[in-house]
Amino acid sequence: MLHVSKHPLVGDCMAGLRDKRTPPDEFRSLSRKVISLLLYEATADLPVHQDRVETPLGPAEVEIVEKEVVAVPVLRAGLGLLGPVLELLPKVSVGYIGLERDEETAVARIYYNKLPPLKGKVPLLLDPMLATGGSGARAIDLIKEAGGEDCRFVCVVAAPEGVRVVEERHPEVKIFAAALDQGLNDRAYIVPGLGDFGDRLFGTLG
Ligand code: PRP
Ligand code: URA
Questions:
Q1: For residue 85, how far is its CA from the centre of ligand 1 (angstroms)?
Q2: CATH 3.90.1300.10 at 2-202, yes or no
Q3: Residue 114 pLDDT
Q4: Which of 10, 52, 62, 173 has its CA 20 to 30 A from that of 165?
């Protein structure tokens, strides 16, 4: 269940994120902007309940978000997407998953897993690049093992290969992406993509 944003502001952020001349400080700022816009779409169907408050002029019917969202950034690049999630969501907690792709094989290895109990909450997986899908699918396995249901996966760039893997292993998960690209190169990088998200975010490009 892939949803690719068609919003012009998302497209504009992508122009800067893809541009290899964009320095890390601007890359971080654009990452925060794009995740804010994607978050708006990924949370559009969160359950609410009706309530009533008093404004200075009298009673008003209001809607309150009912469920707690558990943001799950995948270390390290997913950390670049966390700030706006904490700012925008009224009830939010955070769990962390550390996954690293082997440079040669592109197979993801888990090095950290700290999730709170997820039953009755809405897990929101944050990982900017959905390439082979190995990291995303493994992270969703861990979320399910912790009791998570109704998981949403927010990424910045998705490759068709990765979307297929996640859809096969977790068909009910809704994926929200800013862009769906052509495919992977022989090093399993997304083309045209934006390069290594974590390195560009944290200024660790060689
Ligand atoms: C990147 C990215 C994803 C993963 C996607 O992380 O942030 O987690 O690759 O690739 P996949 O779909 O082929 O599994 P990376 O391993 O580069 O680690 P980093 O976030 O620490 O830079
Ligand atoms: N990880 C990245 O950071 N970029 C890619 O293109 C693929 C995986």
A1: 20
A2: no
A3: 97
A4: 10
